[in-house]
Amino acid sequence: MDGVSSPPASALPQAELDRITDDLVTQFKTVFDPEIPVDIYELGLIYKVDINDDRHVDIEMTLTAPGCPVAGDMPGWVKDAAAKVEGVKSVDVSLTFDPPWTPDRMSDEAKLELNML
């Protein structure tokens, strides 16, 4: 081996990680940007989700603009939604603006909803 080690395998079974991930996506789709009639997942506001072996979830997200009027509220909405997922023990949400959000991050579904296709 060349000195590079693989990350340790998760103590959670892959099927459980997959279920939690799917359930998190379902919950993210219940949170909407109040100014845009599309959920935060389809808008591409969720940048990263990590689930550790203790079932703690770290979420890194952004907003459509740094001056978004719900900047102080939306991370709490996301935390509350993620905490509803069966098996999740705790959740932390952090905001980042690096890289800044652009409409290119939106799914085709979101673009269709907003007549951008």
Give a structural overview.
The protein has 117 residues and is α+β, with helices and mostly antiparallel strands. The chain is 30% helix and 15% strand. It has four helices and three strands. A three-stranded mixed sheet has the order 1-2-3. It is globular.
> Which regions have little confidence, pLDDT < 50, spanning 5+ residues?
none
Which architecture would the CATH scheme give at its second level? 2-Layer Sandwich
User: Which topology does CATH recognise?
Assistant: GMP Synthetase, Chain A, domain 3
Q: Look at the structure and give the CATH class.
A: Alpha Beta
Measured as a percent range, the helix fraction is: 25-40%
- Rg for CA atoms: 16 Å
What topology emerges from the helices and strands here?
Elements: H1 14-28, H2 40-43, E1 46-51, E2 56-61, H3 74-83, E3 90-95, H4 108-113
Parallel strand pairs: 2-3
Antiparallel strand pairs: 1-2
In short:
With 117 residues, the protein is of the alpha+beta class.
Key descriptive features of the protein:
30% helix; GMP Synthetase, Chain A, domain 3; globular; three-stranded mixed beta sheet; single chain; alpha+beta; 117 residues
